[in-house]
UniProtKB/TrEMBL annotation:
Keyword Transferase included in the entry's annotation: yes
Claim: Transferase is one of the keywords in the record: yes
InterPro entries in the record: 3-oxoacid_CoA-transf_A, CoA_trans_fam_I, CoA_transf_BS, NagB/RpiA_transferase-like
A GO term for molecular function: succinyl-CoA:3-oxo-acid CoA-transferase activity
The protein, known as: 3-oxoacid CoA-transferase subunit A
Species classification: Bacteria, Pseudomonadati, Bacteroidota, Chitinophagia, Chitinophagales
Pfam families linked: CoA_trans
Amino acid sequence: MNKVVSNADDAIQDIQDGAVLMLGGFGLCGIPENCIAALVRKGVKGLTCISNNAGVDDFGLGLLLKTRQIKKMMSSYVGENAEFERQLLAGELEVDLIPQGTLATRIQMAGMGIPAFFTPAGYGTEVAEGKEVRVFDGKPHLMELALHADFAIVKAWKGDTMGNLVFRKTTRNFSTSMARAGQITIAEVEELVQPGELDPDNIHVPGIYVHRIFQGGNYEKRIERRTVKI
């Protein structure tokens, strides 16, 4: 089945106000840059965004924060975005900070059809408020629910017209799980190939999970925080 759409604007055309979105990537690595730009152009508002991070002020999800299109952020790291901090402190943005392992597992469970799981992470902190606690082997654990989304939007290195995806290195951290957890999964890829051109042993997300795919372009691939000298 050919799942190709012409561009990012076509791929996100049915995302409406109030939608719950998962956006792949790790930091600024492997984020769906073209789809984020299309969401800014569309002007859709009231979004709940589930992502490892909130981007930076002028890139990634920071662009949607700047235009006030995000109502709620569900993330594990948000430390590089001054506008995010301003909106949070001003009470303009709902924020659910989730331990990174818990966030990843909640997404994985949604893709696997498992409704909940128990983890010790967050017990005894604000994260535990309102959650069921059970003791396993003498240690308290919180019950965490699987995390679903109306749309999962990911960026892969390569993909074929049937939606099979191949990611590179760190970009796999959240994107492969998110692609399985959305009601509709949209993938932008650096290189779009024909069926049979991808090694089946190297496919990270089978096409059965992907509903729309297109070849993106003009990727900036920014480095969020350089830690070595050139």
